[in-house]
C-alpha cells in the first residue's frame, strides 16, 4: 500500500470536528517531525500545526495547506463526526508530499512550510492560523480539494478551483404583540419578515456576474397560535462569484429588508456574519499548478478552471495578506454521490496523483 493511502486510511478512522482535532493534529505533527520538519503545534491557540523546512539557501517560502477537520452528521439519530468532505484525503496528500520532498532532498532553496489547518467547515480556522503567524513569511500558498464527479473525473485536475464568496444575512424583525382577534392593535412580525423576503427576491444585479440570495430560515413564535408575534428572525444565504458583487448585494439586501419591514410599520436589526471571501489567485501560482498537472496527467488531463458556489476559508489567506501568491487545484477522483453526503466515496488511487502534483509544484517553486 502506498504511503498516501496508508495515511488517508488512518485519518479516516479518527474524524474530529473543528478545533477538536486533537488526535489528528498530534499524528500529523509527529509525522512531520519524523520527516525532518521543525514543527509548531497549537498555532493560533488552536489545533493548528505548522511544519517548516529551511534549505539554508536564500529563496521563497512556499506553503502547502490542508484542512484537517471532519463534518458533523446525525446517523440513525446519533450525532457523529465523519470525513465526508475529503479533508482526510487533503491532509494525507500534503503529508505524503512533504515527506517525499525531504526524503529525496528535492528542496534546493528557500523554505517549505506545511500548514495543517483546523476548522475549515466552520469558516474560522484560516483566520486563527493567520492570527497565529502561519503565513507571516509565506510568499506563495497552494491548496487543493477533491472534486465531485459532475465537475471532473478520475485522471483529471483543474489548476484553478474558484469558490464563491458566501455570507449569512440575519434580520430580526420587531413588531407589536396583539390578540389574534384584534390584529389592528398589533404589528405582525411575520408580515414584516415576508415583506422583506419579497423585497430581497426583487433585487437584480448584473446577470453576467453569478450570485444568489435566498431565505433559508425563518423563526417566529408568540407561544400560542391565537396571538400575533412581535418578533421574527430570517436568515438569508448569500453567495457571489466576486467579492465586489458580494459587497453590492449585501448593501442592496440590507436596504430591501429595512424597506420591507417598514411597509407594515415594523423595525428590523440587520447583521451579516460567516463571511467567506471569493477566490482570487495569482497567474504565477496557476501556471505552476498547470505545469504540474500536465506532467502528471498529460494535456488531456488538464481541466479548465472550475467555478463552484461553495465556499472555502482558504481565501482568507489572500484577503488578509494581499501580497501572497495563492493557487488552489481541484482533483478528479470519481467522487460520488457528493461532498458532505454521508455515503461520500471516491477512488483512493487519485491520492497518489494529487501527492505528485503537490511535489512537482513545490519543486518548481523551490528548485527552479
UniProtKB/TrEMBL annotation:
CC annotations in GO: cytoplasm
Binding positions for Mn(2+) per the UniProt entry: 85, 87, 121, 145, 340
SUPFAM superfamilies: Bacterial exopeptidase dimerisation domain (SSF55031), Zn-dependent exopeptidases (SSF53187)
BP GO annotations: folic acid catabolic process
Top-level taxonomy: Bacteria, Pseudomonadati, Campylobacterota, Epsilonproteobacteria, Campylobacterales
Alphabetized PANTHER family for the sequence: PEPTIDASE M20, PEPTIDASE M20 DIMERISATION DOMAIN-CONTAINING PROTEIN
GO molecular function: dipeptidase activity; metal ion binding; para-aminobenzoyl-glutamate hydrolase activity
Free-text comment on the cofactor: The Mn(2+) ion enhances activity.
Peptidase M20 dimerisation domain location: 173-257
Protein name stated in the entry: Amidohydrolase
InterPro entries attached to this UniProt entry: AmhX-like, Amidohydrolase, Bact_exopeptidase_dim_dom, Peptidase_M20, Peptidase_M20/M20A_hydrolases, Peptidase_M20_dimer
Keywords: Hydrolase, Manganese, Metal-binding
Source domain of life: Bacteria
Pfam family, one: M20_dimer
Co-factor(s): Mn(2+)
